[in-house]
Sequence to fold (379 residues):
Amino acid sequence: VPTTGQPSRSDQRRLSETFTPPGALLQVPAEELPQLLERWRLAAVGQLAAGVAHEINNPLFAILGTIEFMLEEAPPGSELRDRLERIQRSGEEIREIVRALVEFAREPAVDRHRLWLADVCAQTVQLVRRSSLAKGIEVVERYPEEPIVVDASANQLKQILLALIRNAQQAQPADGQVEVELLREATHAVVRVRDHGPGIDEAVFPHIFEPFFTTRLGAGASGLGLTVALGLAQLQGGELKAESELGGGSTFTLRLPVVP
Amino acid sequence: VTRIIVLDDEQVVRDLMVEILERAGYDVEAVEFSRELIDLVEAGGVDLVVTDLVMPEVSGLDVLEQLKLRSPELPVIVVTGASTEHNVTRAVELGAAAVLMKPFKHGELRNAVARALDD
Fold:
């Protein structure tokens, strides 16, 4: 293990993938320069966001983790408990805002490849299962036998799926089930993420993709998850739609053109 | 008693994780530097490691890689405040038993530890 030096080997690898040395500017055709500079700017914004996230999330963990101990000791119904819960909710809002900032700052779809969509879905579900996102929910996967290939950014597809799975998870009780289904409909690949929650209220439904719209205000929601997912779906040349039935859960459908 | 070592460069974070895990009945030791962690693991008797990802002296990914080279069966849980997808994916590829995003709830850490020890 290296004991000195910063950044680490992994970070250096990452930096070298992200940044081209300034000398390379001389070899770039003039018409490609704006695009290259824009890519550098976005990479820098992404790194800034990750740095901010790190600097905020560590002390925030100390605050929320300590509050959790204090809540265990605060008598139910006491004024102290109310105050601690207020601090906890505010901390959770900060956490969501930081997460949304990091997601917004991610690189755009400059890196599209031919992908086996089932692999991307399976890898995302694997990520959910191995991270703190899972929180007891069961994720059921259904993939077709025929391979479905799309031309897209794997990272951004994963980001869309993570947002949809997170949304499905939050729409129902902690021990609920989320279904992730992939199928082909003529010229399009279709990914459905379905929950078995209470469904979305009619008054709420038209607004679910709007930025900063959330029904979980004060419960740690940023109101940006579905907005970012929709924007990324469109960047891939696809579309994202929602259907919901009161009492019957909700289904989010991502449609992407398949590569013939 | 199950022995857990926690590696994090920030004392307030170390103290908190130690308290969460000690209350869950584990024997926990916290260290600030990766060298101390490697020495403890090489000395033996360590059942699980919890490591931060972004630290000034070394990346948690490099720590994970080194631990897996020495003790492939040792469960390692990665905790991170800067959860870029690249890092999370790489940690899973390198064999992390779980990746937790700070700030997480006490129960998430306890559950991740219990699952990793069961596996």
In short: Strands of chain B lie at 3-7, 27-31, 48-52, 76-80, 98-101.
